[in-house]
Amino acid sequence: MQAADWVQQMAVYKTFDNGFEYIDIVNKSGRAKIAVQGAHLFHCERVGEQPLLWVSETSFFEPGKAIRGGVPICWPWFGKHQTDSSLPQHGFVRTSVWTVVDIQETDEHTTELILQLKSSARSLQLWPYIFELQLHVTVAEKLTIALTTKNCDENTFTITSALHSYFTVSDIDNVYIEGLDKTRYFDSLTKESIIQKGNTHIGGEVDRIYQNVRYPLTIHDQKRNVHIDAHGSSSAVIWNPWKEKCARMGDMKDDAYTTMLCIETANALDDARTLLPGDKHTVTAILS
Ligand code: TA6
What we know:
Layout: E1 10-15, E2 21-27, E3 30-35, E4 40-46, E5 73-74, E6 99-107, E7 110-118, H1 121-126, E8 131-139, E9 143-151, E10 157-159, E11 161-163, E12 166-168, E13 176-178, E14 184-187, E15 193-195, E16 200-201, E17 206-211, E18 217-220, E19 225-231, E20 235-240, H2 242-248, E21 260-267, E22 273-275, E23 280-287
Antiparallel strand pairs: 1-2, 2-3, 3-4, 5-11, 6-7, 7-8, 8-9, 9-23, 10-22, 11-21, 12-21, 13-16, 13-18, 14-15, 14-17, 17-20, 18-19, 19-23, 20-21
Bound molecules: 6-O-phosphono-beta-D-tagatofuranose (TA6).
Residues 66, 79, 89-90, 164, 188, 207, 237, 239, 262, 264 line the site of 6-O-phosphono-beta-D-tagatofuranose.
């Protein structure tokens, strides 16, 4: 769609038929949609381009279920909980209902949103610390997502996290990632520690946590390049479930793996962040 097909600018609360609430943002740069649950960006496209973010055609948009695609927020732990397997993978904030604090249409090409999540009786049962999260999203020529953690507790805590971005690719067989050459990664499938040689191609299931990443990274796709820059992160997770795992996932069509690639701006493994009482930490992904 061209900008002319859209109203020039808007930021409107909408709901799916089941009442699932999201904000629909349009400006002269493009369009984005962010769910109030999880502060979850699940759509972003620039004028005249295919969507930047991938979302599953069979994703749930239901209370308590994470959307498959867009940018899930993994916090206060990335991956499985280290000691309690009954706790949800990737933490609990991606299925929590956030509060929209502010929406500003700063100019015709830029819309900024701030969403907030504070600790609660429920969260304290899952993770025993008082915190405040803010997500600052800027929808413009670049999509900027900044997650700020504030330690409001009297105790120090350590977090791992990821802005778990799913990107649309034309065909997984014809893309590669530039920027990870000579970077060590932990292979979550084989549990090995390996040094990346050259560009990263995806020829099967890939689930890797790269450490000491020197951003920016670039997805070279046949039809376009996608640039991922970051602040407050020195780790990146690359994931594609490939055929077999994709077929087992209830919220992905069997061939969905062919048009998606996750490059997650993280604070994972050695890049975990420890916050003293009163400390703040911001992890930012700049996608273009
Ligand atoms: O992206 C890395 C990863 O931890 C993979 O191992 C895979 O589990 C993926 O996240 C999706 O996790 P989810 O809990 O959203 O199904």
